[in-house]
Amino acid sequence: MKPTIKTLGALKASGYQSRSVKEEMRHNLVEALRNKKDLFDKIKGYEETVIPQMQTAVLSRHNIIFLGLRGQAKTRMARLMTNLLDEYIPVVAGSELNDDPLQPLSRYAVDLIQEKGDDTPITWLHRDDRYTEKLATPDVSVSDLIGDLDPIKAATMKLTYADERVIHFGLIPRSHRGIFVINELPDLQPRIQVALFNILQEGDIQIRGFKLRLPLDIQFIFTANPEDYTNRGSIITPLKDRIDSQILTHYPKAIDISRQITEQEAKLSAFQKENIKAPELIKQLVEQISFEARKSEYVDQKSGVSARLTISAFENMYSTAERRMLLNGDTKTVLRVADVLGVIPSVTGKIELVYEGELEGISSVAIHLIGKAIRQEFETLFPNPEKGKKLKKGQDKEKKNNIYKETVDWFNNGNHVDLLQTMSNAEYEKALISVPGLEATVSNLHPSLSKEDKLLYMEFLLHGLAEYSQISKHKLDSGIQFKDLLGSLLNNIGAAGEDDEEQDDFNYRNN
């Protein structure tokens, strides 16, 4: 609740005592830790790493830099630091620098208190208004951050440039008694970084030769990518030396943590949540794509693979299914493996390639990553088809593990099946049921599946067989076609040298 005290005299009578912003944050963190209150519950995967280090830095009253690759919640961590501030603090009414009524800083506040005394009006500033964030760009100037002389103010007030009242304060002085964040610190020009030295070490500022010392009270937080990745600039050594705590961020170390982040951050409409079912297999598959990208030889690992990849992919999966449902007049639908085609734009826009990846092309690499993810998940649900080919010594040929033989033989006899993105639920079921052996294989291995999940597993089995080179799959304009492997190879040989985009094999792999 916002306090009702409105004058300096009433504030003194209430017993209010001033304290620095870092002492304030430390005090509130101590109370939160004692009461087992989690102020950073929206951050997943940092419970044992980043958050304890951040808490230690706050207890030490340190300025902080979060160092890590893109999409590692650095800015989110900085913004949540406002939870450590008091809900409201008193300021001198009309003060440009959020002056503490008991410890005025600006010329304006000092003169006002001298004039009005205990009748000096005060207002209350909410914690959300004490947070300032600036993205570092090459065009940021010292006047933007620190301040400069204002000729218009000098002319209007008929003051000389020697009067400090003509100063226009920059973002940092106006963040007095609050949190100031600079994102992407290496992008700040070195000469601008030098201007931060005194503020970090001594807490004061210098403006155009003024004999002015403002003991600013600010909690500084910086974010940056590793210097060996950021070619645009670097953090100069004297500045880095003045930042007390450097905290390294990281990507989720387990898929279940990544899933929690994705489901928390994905922006889905109420209609999508109500009418589109997302099976566990699909959720796992989407997360696996980013994990494959983070170890792919085609992807620049210094650039990183943002958590935004899976968030965008998850949203696109839902939208792909929603579009299909609306076109067919269905009232409900379930996410399919074929809907993975809808995530390709999310993948291509979120990764940077090394030279080898550039040679293959961004779309081919995206398809390759999807294939890798399918292959990784396949063995958790089905036997490896390649192991089934190998016979142990003395093993009867008929007893070998070849549960996929009926399905593979059907394709080898010249049959094919098309799974289009716009298929209705009924057409989708009919197409999968038409493939011999597919339903029986899934039912034998997973007998307790619902009808919807059984169809999904049947489709996934086709994708898995293609990834293990038992059958082939090709990208159509509006879906995927599964057919025999040998016929596809012969067709590709026959089409060699022809400029026909339809010959592109959707089953791109690194062989």
Mean pLDDT over the full residue set: 87
The largest sheet is: 5 strands, parallel
Q: Give the strand tally.
A: 14
- Which value, in Å, is the CA radius of gyration? 31 Å
> How large a portion of the residues is in β-strands, by DSSP E?
5-15%
Structural class: alpha/beta
- What is the count of DSSP helices, taking H or I runs of 4+ residues? 23
Arrangement of strands in the largest sheet? 4-7-8-1-9
Spans of at least 5 consecutive residues with low confidence = 391-400, 493-511
Domain count: 2
In short:
With 511 residues, this protein is of the alpha/beta class. Helix content is 41%, strand content 12%. It is built from 23 helices and 14 strands.
Describe this structure in words.
With about 500 residues, this protein is an alpha/beta fold. It has two domains: about 10-250, P-loop containing nucleotide triphosphate hydrolases (Rossmann fold); about 255-505, no CATH class. Helix content is about 40%, strand content about 10%. The protein has helices at about 10-15, 20-35, 50-60, 75-80, 105-115, 140-145, 150-155, 170-175, 190-195, 195-200, 235-240, 255-265, 270-275, 280-295, 310-330, 345-350, 355-360, 360-380, 405-410, 425-435, 440-445, 450-465, 485-495, and strands spanning about 65, 90, 120-125, 130-135, 145-150, 165-170, 180-185, 220-225, 245-250, 275, 335, 415-420, 470-475, 480-485. The strands form five sheets. The protein has a five-stranded parallel sheet, covered by helices on one side. A hairpin with a 2-residue loop joins strand 13 and strand 14. Helix 12 (about 255-265) packs across helix 14, helix 14 packs across helix 15 and helix 18 (about 360-380) packs across helix 22. It is elongated and about 95 Å long. The N and C termini lie far apart (about 65 Å). Residues about 390-400 and about 495-510 have low confidence and may be disordered.
